[in-house]
Design a protein that fits this description.
- The protein contains 11 helices and 9 strands.
- It has a domain at about 5-135 and about 170-190 and about 255-265: Rossmann fold.
- By secondary structure, it is α/β, with parallel strands linked by helices.
- The chain is globular and about 55 Å long.
- Helices cover about 40% and strands about 15% of the residues.
- A 7-stranded parallel β-sheet has the order 3-2-1-4-5-6-8, with helices on both faces.
- Strand 5, helix 4 and strand 6 form a beta-alpha-beta unit.
- The termini are far apart.
- It binds NADP nicotinamide-adenine-dinucleotide phosphate (NAP).
Length: about 290
């Protein structure tokens, strides 16, 4: 049997950068889809393509057996992902693994969850072997708060709600399994960490890992939005506020066994994430 070739979109991104080595370790041919030819992903085949350029996607899909579909958070993400799925179907690939989001739902008040659900619905009726992965909030999203965490605090409009946050390395391990194991065909996996934690608990874990006092501040959504206005485009800021309202309502606290089911080992805990990234959260001595 020929060694399968697997195309990884978003190969330089949070999940993709961990997925490439996870797939490589499984002995398949990995084709990393990148935009910037001057920054190839080391150790694997690279192909330059852009989700906004259909011809480049068709060329990238030539000779591919399976593809991992992950797009950046963009206003037109659903349209770009749906077109990629259509092109993958046209190319006759055997399997598509789609990165969606926990609680994706066509009727959700959260726009990102509606957009992901639209892509899921399209892929499900396309007639292509597929697996859908719905990860919860990424632990790596905390790296976006590293600037203030290093100063001893971080803030979000989430109250005391617990979220079963997940390390993106475990999403990648689950995706590698889904891309190589046909038993996952037609299934949707909700991917979570091993427990649900509040942001106050996260602050405690980060304090222990860094040896510094880090406090979490719950803030009203309006204040959070005001601080980010001008930093993020309006659609993304509004979507982020909707995301946090969803977390604050306690709608993202279920713990699922999917990572263990798919990979054979439990997902990383927030304490593991904090230990591995403590240096990025520690206060910098500028003296
Ligand atoms: N963040 C969370 O907590 C979370 C939770 C659940 C689900 N998600 C979902 O995860 C997905 C990815 O989000 P992310 O913010 O973590 O992004 P990411 O995967 O870290 O980064 C985006 C990737 O897409 C590539 N890319 C950007 N524009 C592209 C284009 N036009 N064509 C092809 N590739 C392009 C980037 O490549 P370059 O290096 O060239 O820029 C990068 O590799 C989103 O659908 C989001 O809804 C996120």
């Amino acid at each position: 049997m020929n060694t399968p070739t697997i195309l990884v979109t978003g190969a330089t991104g949070t999940v993709g950068s961990a997925l490439v080595p996870a797939l490589h370790a499984r002995g398949v041919n990995v084709r990393a889809m990148i935009r910037d030819p001057t920054r190839p992903v080391p150790g694997v085949e690279n192909v330059v393509a852009d989700l906004t350029d259909a011809d480049s996607i068709t060329a990238a899909l030539a000779g591919v057996d399976a593809a991992f579909l992950n797009s950046p958070s963009a206003e037109n993400a659903a349209r770009l992902q749906i077109r990629f799925a259509d092109l993958a179907h046209d190319a006759g690939i055997d399997r598509l693994v789609l990165l969606s989001q926990y609680a994706a739902d066509l009727d959700s008040p959260v726009r990102f969850l509606r957009w992901h659900a639209q892509v899921e619905a399209h892929v499900q009726q396309l007639g292509i072997n597929h697996t859908i992965l719905r990860p919860n909030l990424y632990m790596q999203a905390l790296l976006g708060f590293a600037g203030t965490i290093a100063q001893g605090w971080f803030a979000a409009p989430i109250g005391n709600a617990a979220v079963s946050i997940i390390d993106t390395r475990d999403i990648a391990a689950a995706a590698a399994a889904a891309l190589t194991d046909p038993v996952t065909t037609g299934r949707t996996y909700t991917l979570t960490g091993p427990r649900a934690v509040t942001h106050t608990q996260i602050a405690h874990v980060l304090s222990q890992a860094t040896g510094q006092t880090i406090a979490f501040q719950d803030v009203p959504a309006e204040q959070f939005a005001r601080a980010l206005r001008g930093v993020l485009p309006p659609w993304q800021l509004d979507g982020l506020v909707e995301d946090y309202a969803h977390y604050a309502r306690g709608e993202a606290s279920e713990v699922h066994t999917s990572v263990t089911d798919l990979t054979g080992r439990p997902p990383r805990d927030i304490t593991d994430f904090a230990a591995d990234h403590a240096g990025l959260f520690a206060a910098h001595d500028n003296a």
